[in-house]
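@channel sequence for tomorrow's demo:
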Amino acid sequence: MRLKAMLAVVLSCIPYAKAEMEWQSSTSIDLSTRQYNGSPMRASQLDREFDAKLMWELDFENSKTGLSGGLKPVLSAAKNEGIRAFDIQEAYITRSFSQGQLNVGVNTVFWGVAESRHLVDIVNQKQPTRNLDNEAKLGELLLHYQHFTDNGHWFAMSLPYFRERDFGLPDDRLSLPLAVTDEQFVGRDANYRGSYLLGYRGVLGDWDVGTYYFDGIDREPVIRPNDNQEFDAIYRRLQQTALDLQWTSEYLLGKVEAVHRHHQMGGKSWAYVVGAEYYFYGIANSNKDLSLLMELHRDTEEQVNLNRLYQDATFIGMRLAWNDVDDTSMITGVLIDSDTGAHTIKTEFSTRLSSHLSLALEANLFLEQTQRDATYGFKDDDFIELRLTYYL
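structure tokens (generated this afternoon):
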């Protein structure tokens, strides 16, 4: 049904393909290899993965009518699994007005200011099968209206459909030990799985401010074992109020993300991440900029396992920007559980090798894990990944 809905949106774009439109398109291919720790928790899990991804982007705009839009299908394949997934991350039309903008179709939205957790980012379903940082997302069908003011915009968003999470298989690394074979919904009518948001984003002096109220289905399911030695994914109705703030000065960024939740199953809870990033410009008389990060986490929600990762934790990291024509940068940091002492370390490096080719490296380590830690099941899934992206 999800694919049909997306294709319907794509087809709806066709009548707008008039000669007056300005078109732009690009194609890129990702090739990546990932080497895991050689001692997996389950014997069936592989040590090495090869993946390929084909992405095509098409954008169009008509300044006379105020219409614009985009299309971004993504095809993913893995060496051992053939075609793994097809997804349309973007297929939308935007109509601009004098003080407003209406966006209809499939889109991907990024919200939040913190580095180590995207707490307020709630629109799109996440893909945790490759990474636990929730930065990989599925496209979401939405109706999004923004009304612009002098300092920002008010917005209303309707999400008429809901996309279940792909948990992968127990043979995958960074996966659950048993397959998820059934989904249950708590607090929503079986025939209605929509959600909506009302909110504001703007700039007030040195502050970037974002806030919203969400009523719908939480993208994070509760995982429970069933009588068949498998898992059920339980999606709960969520009413959430969120706030994100970023204070900007010459050398310092102050960051806050906070949410208050009311789940139909699990009751009320709250969470926040508060931190700062301090910049050192032109270190050692070079063009490089170095910044140091520290973020503090608290989360009182106990039903979702990965939320426990942030119950009482501290993130310490650094970001290095070369400020060169190849856009070279690196970020590394460690998330430390204040209760158990568990460490989760992540490093990312990226640069361009030529006008058509870019390189990215990523490494994850899970250290000092105990059975009380949310990431104990991934303690043997340390990995390093090399990814090349070729732009045609």
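heads up for whoever presents: The helical segments are 2-13.
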